[in-house]
Write a structure and sequence with these properties.
PmbA/TldD fold; alpha+beta; 11 helices; 446 residues; single chain
Length: 446
């Protein structure tokens, strides 16, 4: 693809553009869904394309194409130049400059490409079987999926940025329905890796089934203020919401509750949150971002103190700071914007059993509905529906459902008193977090 990238740069120069960036992508993906031990869906997709960004006296123009012929590239360059000419000038818009060597990462496993469709189908079938066999109350596995992806990225610009990499990943996902006495509850689970040998379909299916069965018999509980333990799935959903408020774009547009709090305590002293774009196990890891800036570790919250935000080139220039390597793109069809890579919650860990044993009265939250829609990243206030299990005198007790958890993100963060030892990757957003223990949260029931 570098031949295509260099050709696009040459065509741009020939049309009079001096500050140009070309981003190219080649990707494949596969998705297998099974139902009642039959393949219900098998889809495979290939994607290839080029995006061209032109900078002219502070104005930016962008255009893209999936046709990499010379004629199409020339037309795409012409459209990018034309778009720049009719765009408003912005003093902070500029071509990204080289920022040093990109790190060497092992983010591609060639074994995945050698796995057959039969191997992948068997993983999906094993996933469904494990869920159904785990407990007789599991009546349906609504979703049993195996999926993978393989992508190659190429970038070059007229300032000297140049690089490429290849990455891949695979995962399983199970969504299970359990039934008892006419009540139906759901549970889900993931398993992720870079090769099928790293997936655990049996564990994934059984966990999804157990999460559903644990909620059978659930009912509303009394309203109270109590200790809440958010399991990793729910904790990751909250972290995903607050991470959007930690981007420089949100801060500069006045859409972040953290906008004026840099250097202030925003969480309990045990809380450390890092955006780690080079984590060896992170599925969002890459040697460089969508602008060619090397990825890195960026401390967001350290010892409870807000240390900074995530920047791309544009927001970095606007703030007088360097990019943190977080100028991410959805694909070649989009331009970069500051977004998190792998979010990692770190700190001293306490065995989950000891945490539960030390709670006199509380709730273990295993499912939350509407975290992204029910949490406001500007005010920090939230009110969401939850389900889980009551904790009484250090033991897991009655399952609960149809209750609300309400508060604000800053207070929640400041009241985190412990991190469990059950940290895991949650692929929605690529977040590594353990269960979080939060004191004094408001629970609305009956």
């Amino acid at each position: 693809m570098f031949v295509v990238v260099d050709r696009a740069l040459d065509l741009a120069r020939a049309q009079g553009a001096s500050s140009v960036e070309v981003y190219a992508q080649r990707a494949t993906s596969r998705r297998i869904k099974v139902y009642e031990q039959q393949v219900e869906e098998l889809t495979a997709a290939r994607r290839k394309g080029v995006g061209v960004r032109v900078f002219t006296e502070g104005a930016v123009g962008y255009a893209y194409t999936s046709d990499t012929s010379d004629a199409s590239l020339a037309e795409t360059v012409a459209r990018a130049i034309a778009n720049a000419r009719v765009s408003d000038s912005d003093e902070f818009a500029a071509l990204p400059e080289p920022q040093g060597a990109a790190p060497q990462l092992e983010i591609y496993d060639p074994r995945l490409a050698g796995a057959s469709d039969a191997d992948k189908i068997e993983i999906a079938l094993a996933l469904e079987r494990a869920a159904l066999e785990h407990d007789a109350r599991v009546k349906t596995v609504d979703t049993a999926i195996y999926a993978d992806g393989d992508a190659e990225i190429f970038i070059a610009n007229t300032a000297g940025v140049r690089g490429s990499y290849r990455t891949n990943e695979c995962y399983t996902f199970a969504y299970v329905l359990a039934e008892q006495d006419g009540q139906v509850e759901t549970g889900d689970s993931y398993s992720i890796g870079r090769d099928i040998s790293q997936l655990e379909p049996a564990r994934c299916g059984a966990e999804a089934a157990q999460r559903a069965c644990d909620l059978l018999g659930a009912r509303k509980c009394a309203s109270m203020k109590a200790t809440v333990v958010l399991d990793p799935f729910v904790a990751a959903a909250f972290i995903g919401v607050l991470s959007l408020a930690l981007t420089a774009d949100a801060v500069q547009k006045g859409r972040s509750l953290f906008a004026t709090l840099e250097g202030s305590a925003v969480a309990g002293t045990i809380v450390n949150l890092t955006d780690d774009g080079v984590h060896r196990d992170g599925l969002a890891s890459a040697p460089f971002d969508g602008e060619g800036t090397p990825c890195r570790r960026t401390s967001l919250i350290e010892g409870g103190v807000l240390r900074g935000f995530l920047y791309d080139t544009y927001t970095g220039r606007k703030a007088g700071r360097a990019s943190t390597g977080n100028g991410l793109r959805p694909s070649y069809v989009g331009t970069p914007s500051p977004r998190p890579t792998n979010l990692v919650v770190e700190g001293s860990k306490t065995p989950l059993a000891d945490i539960i044993g030390g709670v006199e009265h509380g709730v273990l939250v295993t499912n939350a509905v509407g975290v992204h829609s029910g949490a406001n990243p500007v005010s920090g206030e939230f009110s969401i529906g939850i389900s889980g299990r009551l904790i009484k005198s250090g033991r897991l007790s009655t399952p609960v459902r149809e209750v609300t958890l309400a508060g604000d993100i800053i207070s929640m963060l400041k009241n985190i008193t412990a991190l469990a030892d059950d940290a895991r990757w949650v692929p929605s957003g690529s977040i590594l977090t353990p269960s979080l223990v939060i004191e004094g949260m408001s629970i609305g029931g009956v």
